[in-house]
TrEMBL record:
It comes from Microbacterium halimionae. Pfam families: ROK. InterPro entries: ATPase_NBD, ROK, WH-like_DNA-bd_sf, WH_DNA-bd_sf. Belongs to the ROK (NagC/XylR) family. Keywords: Kinase, Transferase. Coiled coil: none annotated. This is Putative NBD/HSP70 family sugar kinase. One of its GO terms (molecular function) is kinase activity.
Amino acid sequence: MNAREQGTPRGSVRQLNLAEVVRLLHFEGSLSRAALTEHTGLNRSTIADLIAQLGTWELVTEREPDIARGVGRPSPIVSLSPETVAITVNPEVDALTIAAIGIDRAIIVRDRVQHDTVPTPAETAALIAKKVSGWRAGPLALSRIIGIGLAVPGLVRASDGLVRDAPHLGWRDVPLAEVVAAATELPVSVGNDATLGALAEHLFGAASGIDHAIYLNGGASGIGGGLIIGGMPVAGAGGYAGEFGQNRPGIAHDHDRRAPGGVLEDEVSRARLLEVLQLTDADEPTLATALTEATGAVVAGEVTRQRGILTTALANAVNVLNPSVIVLGGFLATLAGVDLEGLTAAVRQQAMPASGEHLQIRAASLAENRLLIGAAELAFAPLLEDPSRAS
């Protein structure tokens, strides 16, 4: 028995061992049988038995290593089957982004569906169902869809996924999981977009291996955030922690204020960037390119104004939470990228010296897929807890 399982009730040890193997392959990638034996502390025959069981559920595949090294028979390489997938969705005021992501973390297919008016929850569910149906006949014809994860820009109750308030979408107290499940006949999980972005960047991105991190997401609906404290995501009592965009910004000069009495996301705003760029809509790469190529004084002035307000907001967060890393996603990453070293230095200057001395600010390395990858983790969580769900 694995030492970590001592004291576990009989009958659940096998489930825990199966789950440990699947989680290792999910978070670490393909591993040899020998590496799985080393990581788990289980013996070789137990690992062989677990892999055989996972194989009958079509969760793993095996292959011989590309190059045999050393003496003796090479250890087969075990991988999660790319045919086990989650549908991930990020509904926004200007578009709905939807993807199919494999449990091996490969993005199989991705689409962004723009809309002129914000869809209702029922219309959103119908759109998801239509897209999934089409994919089943195409790129997902051989796939097993394990569930759907939604990353929603608003307050989502942690206990049941109820969308308490997504103000920019106009959704309030919406049982979104139930609505989408009824339309798709698939298990559905719902979470806050920024919280899921923080999870994704912590597991696989710019905050990987970081125990104390702040993530801020800049999207069409405003600014949200997520917290990693002591290596663990922190959601708060109801699941609403990290709403940095609702804080009152510190603005030194009145002429820099655009929304009297407004909150941070009213001042540091994607919509205001689009306005000065004379764009009606843009996905993240398009916006980043437009800002990089812009040469006018109006655009430069707006970027400088927003960076200054963002600097104070980040310094306040550093003073309260003392992170070692701040990760910025969406248009906030674009703002930071204008001069990342300069932004970092400005935040350190405004923060308490002891709190800011080792601070790093990084762009989200998962880029425009960060929220979708986080939503996939939400959908895969039950399977990672109990792989027998695939049987």
